[in-house]
Every structure is written in structure tokens, then in C-alpha cells.
Specification:
The complex is a heterodimer of chains A (397) and B (255). Helix content of chain A is 72%, strand content 1%. Chain A is an all-alpha fold. A two-stranded antiparallel ribbon of chain A has the order 1-2. Chain A starts with a helix and ends in a 13-residue tail after the last helix. Chain B has two domains: 36 residues; 150 residues, Alpha-Beta Plaits. The chains are: A mainly alpha (397), B alpha+beta (255).
């Protein structure tokens, strides 16, 4: 461990406090807001259909919900595994320090997972769980029975209640999703010691970038899952997702630009060091990956679609490309915030460097595991709770 | 008519209501504000409330303080972990600034700028500022870092979960992750020595008496004398951490 620190010591540029050689938050803490953002964004897309009755989005509704669940199940893992004492993580729930922005993480996370997502999915799937438990045989039958929690009443009145309660939870879920991700932004935005993080816009920027990434993820998954299932993509739905993605992306871009313009115009104490940061260590990740490829190219592509829709054959691959570019762009947005915020010294006089290894808890391979794992969970969820095999096609009135 | 028209009982009711409403508003407003002013608790007047004074004009940059600190507190000897260190500031004739602290200044420091180019140079010993409104205490999710009744910021290494949020929140770079305990470590003002009536190690060994510490409540104490006789500044006052480490002769360049 020490060897790499000695190596980094040689690469220090200017003056940094002697305790600042090593970055305290590494790739795992880049993944944490990234994955949480995907959850919040996917959920908000699902809510659009349910609460705001955007009927055309129906084909993505269940996919978005299950995506949110699959990613939320993993969201806390990089965070916990990065702790110096992961086994003490329960303390955050048993003895939260009320003045800490981080202390309510466990509660917000559990609220979102248990109260919002699981309940909404359960109310939505209860009828199907009961019907599947009657149709299937063997272990699956038992699993569906357990999942239905023994509530097997399929009378019209009960089903209407499922719908009502599910709707209520979705309504409750929208502010919860805002809270979940706005809160993640606040964890960074409230650190006054760090001028790269400390901005009141941080929670709002995190929220909008979360929506961008979550919608892009559902778009990507919808295209891929349809392809795997060999079914025709509902282009009206995809266009509508593309429309929302475009609007939110424009808002996100505007907010982030406002943040940067404000910093540049105000040109406070930290201006010089941050200027060196973005034009030096963050050049590629900020201007190329996040800015050009992750934002400008998709904005232009999706923007052109707003003016004139090209043929389906052209639109499909371009939607796929845009969603992938956005997913990459938002990943680098998190990178630029988390890693970028630690590369410069709080003395404002120099920089440390960041190198990431292949193996180890904080290496590339482990990071890849945390990114791939939600897709595996999602595949399982789609197999267990296939939205396309739901009985309740005709909505209960 | 006027007030005479209002019956006594009604007047008393109105008065009581006004007092009640006033108290409610005052307490509801005061509580969150004190919560923000003091990350942990307001200082207890009965206990000593320690502050630190460092006289930059007296520091010769020998590094004895940083050396003694490592020895006394089992701080890892590698050059990435410090509870106490010394920075050398050199302002050149062309106005540029050079700051150095090789190995935290433990081995003393050599001037690397040719003498003819130097406008002025000085040493700044650094350590935890034991802030009254400590951002590190504010952010700790489990309360493992806290302010002692004497105003010393401490870490309970049996309780710290190692999330490093406090390291991010400290504006002075005074915290590090201990590679053996996997918990956050920092200057304790040698709390173990203070409790025995001994001086913290760095104060004990300073050959020029550049550092003092004492009870900020004691109107006749050394800290009051130091603050009265010198023009003192704290680091990064704009962050409103209410640092209790006061420097005499602090240049504006120092962060």
C-alpha cells in the first residue's frame, strides 16, 4: 500500500498538505452517486406514466420500476465496502448523529427501498403473483406464493385498492426520489472546505443529472431487452422517452453551465486552482467525456429529432448511441465531482494525482462488478416478474 | 376608553399569550441556530476551554514539534500521515510564492530558493485547529468524532466507521486515515497527557517557546495575555469554523 503512496508523492504538483497525498474517496464513491442517480431517474420516468398519465410510456413502466429496484439493491454496496470498518456500518442506523448530512443516508435509503419501491412493485404485481402462483408448478409456485404475502383476494374491490394504494405510493415516491438524489448532492454541496463541491446548486445538479442518467438507462434497456425478446420496439414510446430525455438534458446542461459561469464570473479565492484543475487534470473527463460526448452530441442528436424525425432505421441506432453516450457522460460527471474535488489541495497551492489499480477492493475489476451486478439482478427480476406476461393488461377501472 | 376598557383578566390573558408566543418563537429560532453555531455543544463555563497560540515570529522550523508528535502518538512514520507538521513559506522578489514541507518538516528544512531571490520567508507550524464549530464534528455520521468538554476535538477509534467524511470536511488537512486501525486519526492536543497535568508533546519540546496553550476562559491566563498582546489571526476565517488556534504574525498568503 505504501509503495503506491511513495509513487504518488513523486507526482505531487505544487504544494499540498502532507495528509493529502492519498485520495480518500475513490472509484467506489464515484459509483455510489452514479448508481443512486440511475435509480432516482428510472423511478421518475416510471412515475411519469403512472402519475402524469403519459400513456405512451406504458411499455417502459415496469421495466423502469424493476431497473430502479435492481440498481437500488446495489447502490449502498460500494459505499459500505469502502468503509474502513464495514462491519460498523450499522452504527449509522443505531446512533445517527443528527447534524451529519450523511447520517440520514440509511433512513432515506431504506425508506426508498422498502416503502416506495418494494411496495409500489408489490401492489402492481400482486394480482399477477397470485395468478402465477396458481398457474406455475414446483418451486416457482411457492416463490410466487411467498411474494404475494398470502394476500390472494382477487375481487374487484381489492384490485381497485391495489391500484389506489399503488398510485398513492407513486405520488409519495416522486418527492422521495427527489429527496434521495438531492440528498446525495447535498453530501457534497455542504462541504464548505471544498470549493469544487460547495455550491447550493449541487443537489439540484445531482437531481437533474440523475434524471438524465436514469431515463437514458431505461431507454438503453428498452432497446436491448426488445432486441433480446425479438419484439418490435414501440417507436412512439421510444420517441416520447427521447423527448423527455432531451428536455431534462437541456435543463441539466443549463444548470451545470450556470454553476461554471457563476464560478468564473465570481472568480473567488479558489478560482485559480479550479481553473488549473479543469484545464489540467480534468481536461479529458470534463470537456471531452462529460461535455462533448456525454452532453453536446446527445443534445444535438435528440434536438434534431425534436425538429424532424428521421426514419425508424436511423432513429433506433441513434437513440441507442445517445443513451450510451449519456450514461458515459454522467458517469464522468460523478467522476469529475468526486475525484476532481480531491485532486487539488485545500491549501489551493497544488495537486495530488489519482491512480487506480486493476485488482483490490477499490480497483477497476471491483468497480466493474458493482456496475454489472445490477444488470444481473435486473435479468433475474425480469425473468421472475416479466412485465410482458402480466395478466393485468386491461387496467382496473 | 383606551386600555381601561379591557378587563384585567383579558389583559393578563393577552400578556400571557404574548409571552408564550414570544418564548415559542425565541426557542424555536434559537435551537437550530445554536445547533449550527456549535457543532457539538456549547462550551461549559466550568471546565477549562483550551485554545492554542503559535508565534510565527518565534518558529525556527526545527521540526521538533512534528517529531515529538509522531513519537508520542504512534503516528505512522511514513511521510503521508501527520498530526502536526511545519510549512516553510517563501515569498520571492517577483511576488511568487513557494511552500514546502518535505516529510512534514520533521527533519528540519533547507531553503531551496537562492537568498538573493527571497523577499521574505517564515515557518508555519500546523495542527488541528480544535475548532469551536468544527466541520468534522458536524459531518461525522455516527458521532465518533466529538468535542471534549475542554474543547478538544477527538476521535473514538473504537466507534469510527472509517467513512472519511470528516477528512473531506476539515479545511486544514489535519486528519488522515490511520493505516493500521483503519479509522481516522488526528491531533488530540495530547489529551492523554493533558489529563495527567502534562503539556502536549509539541509544546514540551519547542525550543523557542513558539507555542502556548491555555484556558480561554481564564481572564488571567496565558492565552488571554497572548491574544491581548499580539495581533492574532486564525486560518481561513471566511469558513467560520471558530478555530481556537491563533497565530501571531500570520501572513495573508498562509492557508
Amino acid at each position: 500500500m505504501m509503495e503506491h503512496l511513495y509513487e504518488m508523492l513523486k507526482q505531487v504538483d505544487g504544494y499540498i498538505y502532507p495528509n493529502e497525498i492519498e485520495l480518500n474517496w475513490s472509484i467506489l464513491i464515484v459509483l455510489y452517486p452514479y448508481i443512486t442517480g440511475l435509480v432516482a431517474g428510472a423511478f421518475i420516468l416510471a412515475s411519469l406514466e403512472r402519475v402524469f398519465k403519459v400513456e405512451v410510456l406504458k411499455p417502459t413502466y415496469h421495466l423502469a420500476l424493476l431497473t430502479a429496484l435492481a440498481f437500488l439493491m446495489v447502490a449502498a454496496m460500494p459505499l459500505v465496502s469502502h468503509l474502513g470498518h464495514p462491519l460498523r456500518s450499522y452504527e449509522i442506523m443505531t446512533t445517527p448523529q443528527p447534524q451529519s448530512a450523511m447520517a440520514i443516508f440509511g433512513f432515506i435509503y431504506l425508506w426508498y427501498l422498502m416503502v416506495v419501491l418494494l411496495l409500489e412493485i408489490w401492489f402492481d404485481y400482486r394480482r399477477d403473483l397470485v395468478l402465477w402462483s396458481r398457474e406455475k408448478k414446483g418451486a416457482l409456485r411457492i416463490i410466487y406464493k411467498i411474494l404475494s404475502l398470502g394476500v390472494t383476494d382477487l375481487s374487484k374491490k381489492t384490485l381497485a385498492w391495489d391500484e389506489k394504494l399503488g398510485y398513492f405510493i407513486t405520488v409519495l415516491g416522486i418527492p422521495s426520489a427527489f429527496l434521495l438524489h438531492g440528498y446525495v448532492g447535498f453530501i457534497f454541496g455542504s462541504i464548505k472546505a471544498n470549493p469544487w463541491w460547495s455550491t447550493v446548486l449541487m443537489p439540484v445538479i445531482f437531481l437533474f443529472s440523475a434524471m438524465v442518467s436514469g431515463i437514458a438507462l431505461v431507454m438503453f434497456l428498452y432497446i436491448v431487452v426488445s432486441r433480446i425478446r425479438k419484439v418490435k420496439i414501440d417507436m412512439a414510446c421510444l420517441d416520447e422517452v427521447g423527448k423527455f430525455l432531451f428536455y431534462v438534458l437541456v435543463l441539466d446542461f443549463t444548470l451545470e453551465s450556470l454553476d461554471q459561469v457563476h464560478r468564473i464570473y465570481e472568480a473567488g479565492e479558489s478560482f485559480e486552482i479550479l481553473h488549473l484543475l479543469v484545464t489540467g487534470k480534468l481536461t479529458y473527463t470534463l470537456f471531452i467525456f462529460q461535455g462533448l460526448l456525454g452532453t453536446i452530441v446527445p443534445i444535438i442528436t435528440l434536438g434534431i429529432f425534436r425538429i424532424r424525425l428521421p426514419k425508424e432505421k436511423i432513429r433506433k441506432p441513434l437513440y441507442l448511441m445517445s443513451s450510451l453516450l449519456i450514461l458515459m457522460g454522467i458517469f464522468f460527471m460523478r467522476w469529475n465531482v468526486v475525484i476532481g474535488g480531491q485532486l487539488f489541495s485545500k491549501s489551493f497551492l497544488g495537486f495530488t494525482s489519482f491512480k487506480i489499480g486493476l485488482i483490490g477492493l477499490e480497483g477497476y475489476l471491483m468497480a466493474a462488478v458493482w456496475i454489472i451486478l445490477p444488470f444481473i439482478i435486473l435479468s433475474f427480476l425480469l425473468w421472475l416478474l416479466p412485465p410482458w406476461k402480466k395478466h393485468s393488461e386491461e387496467h382496473i377501472s | 376608553m383606551g386600555t381601561e376598557g379591557i378587563s384585567a383578566s383579558r389583559r393578563s390573558f393577552l400578556r400571557k399569550s404574548a409571552v408564550l408566543a414570544g418564548t415559542l418563537v425565541a426557542t424555536s429560532a434559537a435551537n437550530p441556530i445554536t445547533g449550527v453555531l456549535f457543532a457539538a455543544n456549547e462550551p461549559e463555563k466550568s471546565k477549562p476551554w483550551y485554545g492554542i497560540g503559535i508565534d510565527i515570529e518565534k518558529c525556527i522550523g526545527c521540526g521538533s514539534c512534528a517529531r515529538a508528535c509522531k513519537a508520542e502518538n504512534n503516528v505512522p512514520k511514513e511521510p503521508f500521515f501527520f498530526r502536526s507538521w511545519v510549512e516553510q513559506y517563501t515569498i520571492k522578489n517577483d511576488g511568487s510564492l513557494k511552500v514546502e514541507s518535505p516529510n512534514g518538516g520533521i527533519d528540519g528544512q533547507k531553503q531551496t530558493v537562492p537568498e538573493a531571490d527571497i523577499f521574505k520567508t517564515f515557518f508555519v507550524p500546523k495542527m488541528c485547529n480544535h475548532c469551536e464549530k468544527a466541520p468534522c464534528v458536524q459531518v461525522c455520521p455516527v458521532g465518533a468524532t466529538f468535542e471534549s468538554p475542554e474543547g478538544v476535538v477527538l476521535v473514538d477509534k473504537e466507534y469510527c466507521i472509517g467513512c472519511r467524511y470528516c477528512i473531506q470536511a476539515c479545511p486544514y488537512g489535519a486528519r488522515y486515515m490511520h493505516p493500521e486501525t483503519n479509522t481516522v486519526d488526528k491531533c488530540t492536543l495530547c489529551y492523554h497527557r493533558l489529563k495527567k497535568g502534562l503539556n502536549p508533546a509539541c509544546f514540551e519540546v519547542c525550543p523557542t517557546g513558539a507555542r502556548i496553550y491555555g484556558d480561554l476562559h481564564d481572564k488571567n491566563g496565558v492565552m488571554h495575555k497572548f491574544l491581548k498582546e499580539h495581533n492574532c489571526h486564525v486560518l481561513k476565517p471566511n469558513l467560520n469554523t471558530a478555530s481556537k488556534l491563533f497565530y501571531n504574525g500570520l501572513s495573508a498568503e498562509v492557508r
